[in-house]
């Protein structure tokens, strides 16, 4: 180390404190990276890798860099690649320091702690999530640093914690270091996946330390003051987030001013499987927002409204009073004129939550303050519109919306209308805001005018019309005279520099004004920066007021969005009550009906209850619409309980506590689970956790194994859901096993329905209508033909189907599935016997049988054979 330059020694010392981060080391106008950081960053950023002075062993030192004033896109790219970036700044003025400038890491940017707009999706939260355990309880806490949203909860076991984490979809996960040794990390593999996982020292997960962290961040005596009693594991998880936040941000995030504890049972519970199968926020096939329920429903005009709508979809309500409040607000917002005025005002509102975050974290620009002012200026007009509304929810929103006129006035007086991006070059603070600044600007402007007048005076005094007064950073102001005019130079001119064709001079008077003007300009820049930071601190002190107003504006935006959706798509208000009936008339799938699929969407009715129609057994061919029908019921229930109007003529929803789905088939090879194992695991969870208030959607259960096993499992599952009062969930059960329709004969609350189809000229026509009764055929071969299977395969399939439907074995004992009318060997008529007959053949066959080793199924097959022989 002693052979290294002072700068490299400083770099290596700082890098040693941040081994898992790429260090952006400030050198002048660049952030430089060295050694392994440079090699990695150059590859990710696709920038040139070079080298500088050799190190002590004679090897080149890899080097790359990015301009400091445009570093954000590079940081965003590194974060997207899953890297952490430590920002190391010069914390001393190079002009006032002899030797090397002191540098410190001022913040660490990680995937979960991004605040720069370039790195964020406007309508998506960016969460960092923490796990902790206390006894059998698992705590989950998550923070969006860009908005200040902070929540915690507690669940039983790692599976529940994983389900909640999957819903949150964090960018970064914090876990105790001990998880590496005790096996807990393996139980989180379903959510850790590709996400960056950071291990936190175990001593952080201490109740006393957590109390100190809460006091420091929130100014409360204990976490209980924030409603966190009963969440010991959740408090430990939240404390780990706050600890990590202070370590990386090198200070307190003032806009993280509260934390919201919640219990998942306070909402309609949706596990990861249900969210995925119902395509709530992303499609299953491509993971895209477009084509999901969120993509269909989002009519919000603000980024914060878009994020809140996603939260409402992920956490539907079970409180009837809160659901009714939202419905009342949506209904009152249906008139286009009122809604248009509100949307018009909200359209000009920037992302107040993230503006507030950047201001509090000292990363805001002058343009951010202007955006805040312009947004707040719209609030008085918005409040004027809202005064005409009477619903309780909007009235409560109005009471909580703060116009923050003091901040509007401060920013309006202090910041110019269109400030520059850079904070260090001046031109930010408005005239009239600060007396000293105005005086310095007057001196600067007057000084420059004086230079122009001095140039005219010197030309007249010397008679040299080509004389010029110019400026550069090396010499300052100087008088330049061409060689042809040197004879006219006055005696008080002091030579400064000789050029090939001219001489440069200064005078005492010129030097005096130069010092005055340049000193004023330097002081102006320094003072403007100081005044801006002072203003930013003043605004940051009001972060709680800004956050409350932003939250209420976001809620208003979502309500207006739901009203716009209802108006546009012809949705109606559902009745949500405490009954057990889910009764829907003319229900439609909200997403599919909006697609251009070349055919009219066919609405369907449904009645589910706990008395006569608890389990609907739905049969019918593939592609007929069974899955669409079942999903649309689940989505209508979900939309009803989030307070939205629904795509139905009428709907009455007995409040649902949880939606379960078992749809489709997929391997989970990473966890060593086959398709059938995944199917059975999901089915087992449903049978354990479903209640009489749940909604269960089962699509083709038992298809991942043999036919007899599949039928048996599906039959037993249906019986279990029907017979167990504590698990008798309202259930939609789609199947191709026609044997299951027999359950309706023995189970009073099971009803058969099928998707109507028609056959015409060997064609299958899907009518998309659900009707009472079971289907008589699956029409699988017709669907296979529609899919494009070769005609020879289709014909052979029909032949095999006929053989199977007649029986498994031929009269000769040959499996009928192997038989073929086209390829069958010629049949030979047996020789007629004068004495023998069919009875003799039956007797001979019976003599051949070994009944002691025959299975029941074999006995039935032989009995069928003998019957045909008689």
From TrEMBL:
Stretches assigned to the DNA mismatch repair proteins mutS family domain: 694-710
Coiled coil regions, renumbered to chain: none
CDD domains: ABC_MutS1
UniProt: ATP binding residues: 620-627
A Pfam family the protein falls into: MutS_V
Entry annotated with the keyword DNA damage: yes
Keywords: ATP-binding, DNA damage, DNA repair, DNA-binding, Nucleotide-binding
Similarity comment: family membership: Belongs to the DNA mismatch repair MutS family.
Described purpose of this protein according to its UniProt entry: This protein is involved in the repair of mismatches in DNA. It is possible that it carries out the mismatch recognition step. This protein has a weak ATPase activity.
Listed name of the protein: DNA mismatch repair protein MutS
Protein's organism: Geomobilimonas luticola
